[in-house]
Amino acid sequence: MIEVNKVSKIYGQGPASFKALNEVSFKLQKGANLVILGKSGSGKSTLMHTLAGLDRPTFGSIIINDKDLWSRKQKDIDAYRNQTVGFVFQDFYLQNEETVLENVMVPLEIRGVADRKPKAYEALTRLEIKDKANNLTRNLSGGEKQRVCLARAIIGQPEILFADEPTGNLDSKTSEKVEEILFKLNNELGTTLVVVTHNEDLAKRFANKIILKDGQIIAHEGRELTV
Amino acid sequence: MRRNKSRTVLTVLALSIGAFTLVLTLGLSNALRTSVNSQLSLATNNELTVTLTAENKNQTGVAEYNPKGTTTKATEFRGESMTIQFLSKEQIDAFARIFGVRRVWPNNNISAEYLQLEGNAKKYVVDNINEQSYSDQAKNMLAGTYPANWSESDIILSQSYADTLGVAPSDLVGKTVTLGFLDAKAKNVEQKFTIAGVLKKPTGFGPDQSGTAGIITISIDSMAKIYETEFAGTRDFNQFTYANVLLQSADNETSVRSAITALNKNYSISSLSDIVSRIKTVLNTVTYALAGFSGIALLAAAFGIINTQLMSVFERTKEIGLLKALGMPNKKIRNLFSVEAILIGLFGASVGIIFAFGVEIFVNTVFRQRLIDIGFGSHAILISLTNVLIVAAGLGLLSFIAGVFPARKAQKLDPIQALREE
Fold first, then answer.
1. What is the pLDDT of residues B263-283, one digit of tens each?
2. Model pLDDT for residues B230-274, shown as the tens digit of each residue
3. Residue B107: closest CA among B185, B191, B49
4. Shortest CB distance from A81 goes to which of B319, B326, B332?
5. Which residues of A are less than 8 Å from B3 in CB distance?
6. 3-state DSSP: chain B helix, strand, coil percent, rounded to 5?
7. B327 and A111: CB-CB below 8 Å?
8. pLDDT digit string (tens) for A96-137?
């Protein structure tokens, strides 16, 4: 269960400050899927970053598995990023001079897992990109890079998978494939899926929906979602 | 590090130059110390030298004239300016009664007019008369033997006499020479000696005696007799500037020193160990000064590490952001850069040390014979394992310290801001 209580995020100080989130509250059931919609600057990415443990909210609390995420010690927040969540970035953020396999293994390397390769191959097989395991990521296409990014996000078998515009940089055919994979993970493994997108076709496939405007929820729907 | 090889290589190079200089300095100092030790060990003979410091040493200005003769003398003794009081024969004899003393004799400051080899018409100048030495001189002998028990007729000539006379050193052994002196009334007195051996030309750090100087060595007893011939009846007869005290063993030094001081607190005692310790202090000071200069070079190189690592943090901001986003703890991020800094330091140290070893082998091989000839020893550079370990550990530590600031900068980066960095 993800529980968001009156979360606000203010960037800067004084007259130049900017309120990216304004007392956002909602609850999402474990294993559900949620799409966060809104125009640019509406606070979608900021909300997801606060949920994923990447950006500390200015006010409010986020309860994950009955514990306040941002009251935890830094090492527990690090462990949360590494073990509880997986994150798919719109810009991939892959190490271009390293191979697909090396990129995918990074979260397990941080965790100190010795036997990383079998799990990396398992993730690559799931993403249907095992044959590129030893290629340098700089030589991959956009779709392939997104799948590597996904493989890296799921290798640690996270409870929650966050994806920021996962199909934003992809052509329609590749987008479909990535979408399939995301929902397959949600359905088959019970991974909670939280996605930020502009893509309306993708948004339609989600059971739960939040629309943000100026940092506030202006609309929502879904049975597993309480606002 | 491999991302920007040229920058890393240049930093390693800067460090290696510092390490090279430091190791070489320490190696040179080792060789110098070893050489000095070996030179001085030849002269170690358990001897103390006793002078009597003037009681009125605090007087200001020039001392008043005393027609009975001066009782004090401003002198330079073993590099130190001091005002001493002459020692009487009775005072010197008192030292001989101290337990642990083997022999006592004053400095019989004598000179000879000439030396003449039997069957040779020419007379030659005697530049310096040495008294018999109690240290092992076997290594310095060119021919004959250095007497273990000197008789009054024994004499040792320096190689310069053999060279000048054109006689093989071994042929001189057993021959008779005549020494001519002037007595107190300026009358010529001659004394015959038998050549026991010929000494090699002095080398290394011995007294400043050129290879062509005419130097002879005779027994202490002979010196005393010649002294009497030259000075008996003069006003300053039996007034000595210092006395030599030969110990039965080095173990007696402390007790003998105490006993001499107990006789008169103004006795000033010096020994070879004092001089050795003074030379070692000078050597150490020079070594530390040179090492200090190398240290400055290393300090400058440490700023190179800071620069390299800071550039690395700037260039890898996105990567650091990603690693943090994927849950890498701050401590690991910090260690990543600290370990890199230490590795750069250790690489630098290794390269510098290897080059220093290379120079050591080259110099010691090429100049080996020349070094032996000048009496320095067989090595000009002696790098020890301790030197290597100190430099490697020191540079590792310095690199670690230099890496702290960049590592902390990396650790403090905010993951989202770092990922957005262009």
1. 988 888 888 777 777 888 888
2. 998 888 888 888 999 999 888 888 899 999 999 988 888 888 777
3. B49
4. B326
5. 97
6. 50, 20, 30
7. yes
8. 889 999 999 999 999 999 999 999 999 999 888 899 999 999
The total of other beta-carbon atoms located within 10 Å of residue A135's CB is 15
Give pLDDT, residue B114: 93
Better-scored residue on pLDDT, B102 or B45: B102
Number of DSSP helices (H) and strands (E) in chain A, helices first = 7, 11
**What's the number of CA atoms in the CB half-sphere (13 Å) around residue A10?**
11
Provide the CATH topology of domain A31-56+84-226: Rossmann fold (3.40.50)
Residue B86 resides in a domain: no
Q: What is the distance, to the nearest Å, from the Cα of residue A124 to the centroid of all Cα atoms in its chain?
A: 18
For residue A109, the distance in angstroms to the closest alpha carbon of chain B comes to 9
Domain count, chain B: 2
Q: What is the pTM of this model?
A: 0.65
Task: For residue B178, give the nearest of B110, B225, B107, B119 by alpha carbon.
Answer: B119
Q: Do the bridges between strand A160-164 and strand A85-88 make them parallel or antiparallel, or are there none, so unpaired? A: parallel
Complex ipTM, two decimals?
A: 0.92
Last residue in a domain, options B239, B255, B287: B239
The token duo for A199 is 């893509």
Cα separation, A135 vs A144, whole angstroms: 11
Residues B224 and B284 both lie in one domain: no
Pair B214, B127: CB distance under 8 Å: yes
Structure confidence at residue B75 as a pLDDT band (50, 70, 90): low
As a whole-number percent, the residues of chain A with pLDDT over 90 amount to 71
Q: How far apart are CA B88 and CA B241, in angstroms?
A: 9
Residues B179 and A93: their CA atoms lie apart, in Å, by 99
Exposure string of B198-219, with b = 16+ CB inside 10 Å and e = fewer, is bbbbbeebeeeeeeeebbbbbb
Nearest CA in chain B to A156: B326
User: Across the A/B interface, how many CB contacts are shorter than 8 Å?
Assistant: 46
Residue B363 and residue A151: Cα distance in Å, rounded? 60
